[in-house]
Amino acid sequence: MNKELRIALAGNPNSGKTTLFNTLTGARQHVGNYPGVTVEKKEGIYQTENARIRVIDLPGTYSLTAYSVEEVVARDFLVNEKPHAVINTTDASNLERNLYLTTQFLEMGVPIIIALNMIDVAKDRGISINSQKLSELLGVPVVPIIARTGQGTKELMEEAARIAETHADMDWHPVTISYGDDLDEVLIELEALIASRNFLTDTYIPRWTAIKYLEDDREVLTKGRKADAEVSELIQTKVKIVADHIFKTIETYPEAMIADHRYGFINSILKQGVLTKKYNIERLYASDRIDMVVTNRFLGPLIMLAVLLGLYKFTFTYSQIPVGWLESFFNWLSNAVDTTLADGQLKSLITSGIIDGVGGVLGFVPLIMFMFFGIAILEDSGYLARVAFMMDRIFRIFGLHGSSVMAYIVSGGIAGGCAVPGVMATRTLRSPRERMATLLTVPFMNCGAKLPVLVLLTGTFFSKNQTRYMFMFTLLAWCVSLLVAKFLRMTVLRGEATPFVMELPPYRFPTFNGLMIHTWERTWQYIRKAGTVILGFSILLWAMMTYPGLPESKNIGFEAQRTTIIAGYSEATSRELTETSKTSLSDPAKELKQKLNTLDRVINEQTLRHSIAGRIGTSLEKVSQFAGFDWRTNIALLGGFAAKEVIISTLGTAYSLGEVDPDAAEPLSKTLAVSPSWNKAVALALIVFIMFYSPCFATVICIVRESSWKWGVFSMVFNTTFAFLFATIVYQLSRITSFFM
Predict the structure, then answer these.
(1) Which residues contact 520 (CB under 8 A, 6 or more apart)?
(2) Region for 14 from its dihedrals, namely left if φ exceeds 0, alpha if ψ lies in -120 to 50, beta otherwise
(3) Which ranges of 464-586 does DSSP label H, i.e. alpha helix?
(4) What is the pTM of this model?
(5) What does residue 220 show for φ and ψ, rounded to 5 degrees?
(6) What is the pLDDT of residues 582-606, one digit of tens each?
């Protein structure tokens, strides 16, 4: 049996690491989370002739100093899991910056292989790299590759397998880099102290620990205090002495000197015949020329709006047919169950609770898939980074940081994201006030959970201009989020704005394999949620909408009405309704059937009103009527506190529980279109409310984890109050002006 090797994939953001991971593992990968944190963990399998390699895709990071949770996760994985080898993906066209992370791997002693990626881009820029010379100087294998096409990846993995097998049972051998006389002297002293006292030596090598103390690495300092507070204090005292001396003499800090000497080490290597440039003057590369137009102060925003409009047009145009297929399938399935099972609670649970509930959510899978595919193209091509760059100018006006843009985009700023990773993305913001303002407003974005609801309502009541309305609602989400952020920054979160710097990756052609993987990952998360969370809440809400049922006195009264209606017709006419072989009914039988159906609708509606959910919805109707919401809608909105997708499933269940003629069953959209409780004004008010009311339960929990219960509760109360007032204004203005009636 082939030996299994564990190889970690590391590198800077935008170095092509994820593309390489997808090229190596393809469909043989799965996604989870690292223990204790919400950072995504990807693993996949690569098979060579002699070994089965488990590839772990570490979070993209510029260094191993604990400035972000991604850097902590990457470092802790290397230290605790000790993979057999690490493939360090580097951008050949930006080698100096990418080798900074490499130097830290070398200092840790990690057995690495450098994947010199994007050599085609480097060649186009007139950059020539002697990979053999680089390998000799660094003492590690260097393999030129093009991850996008797969060129060189076979050789890379063969070399990685060889290194992994060689170092499988060996200790790591760190490389020593000089940091100047002042720091080298104190490093030698600290190394001896750390080694003699066995301080954190089970986790880190002594020199690495000493460097981390000089860099003021909070993560290592915290571990040090827990392990041995006395030694930790002694090390910090020595570090303070040398830090004060350096500041007095050259007005800098140890961490800055360490960074300078690392770059000096890199430059000394590159100047030894490793890197040569054909052009002596700076050229405008393809990405730069494109950015002159795409990020232009005036043309850039117009292009961005056009791209967004095109995304919606693409999604709604091409997903319409498969969405119709799924609607027809679930209608057929519901009718099949209806004719197979006898009337009773089990039949009601399956048809109303499960098929009409979950089916209503799964019916939008094609739309979600097309939306995610379009977003994957924008993301993998590098355009989303340009959106963040352009939006920074606007965000500053509203007291936010440029890094807030990515949190908004992740939450659904383009469409189809999720507020949970959006909230977590605020960790990159250093200012606590800017972070809180961003964290509290990202739930206003149109996440993937809201999209099916918005699509259902716009498709039902504004079908002729659906693309335009969805585009308008996206802009509305951005405007409201920024205005609320400005309000928070002027009141409870007052403070100065901090500067913003970000990297713009070069434009790249997305790979088909990468697009398919990204689209499927996000679509599968949606399907899995429908099959677990949505299914559970659909069943719970079905039970709440079914029990305790009508009081016995009312049942007796309705049965008496049924008997009276039937008594008004001949026995032959009554018998005609029970004959399944009849293809057509006589006029008296049709009349009797219509009267009985009318009575059954009244019974079902009264049963729903007397249920637990019905009573809650009815009691809220005294207030919700100002926004145009009836008691059925109130029930659905209560379910939306758990997950926004539940709104559709609950509406489907609420209206299907009132259906008495399975042959006349219609999709939810058609049911709402003919309902007397619904019109364009109600739909518009409901859209506004759903866009801005309380975040879903998962997002609230995430807000609590990232801040406190105080802010979690504030988000629920503030958002819901704001959304209801907004929806009420929209509904009442629509009624007065009759604009949407």
Answers:
(1) none
(2) left
(3) 466-490, 512-529, 535-546, 552-567, 571-578
(4) 0.61
(5) -70, -40
(6) 557 777 887 887 787 777 777 777 7
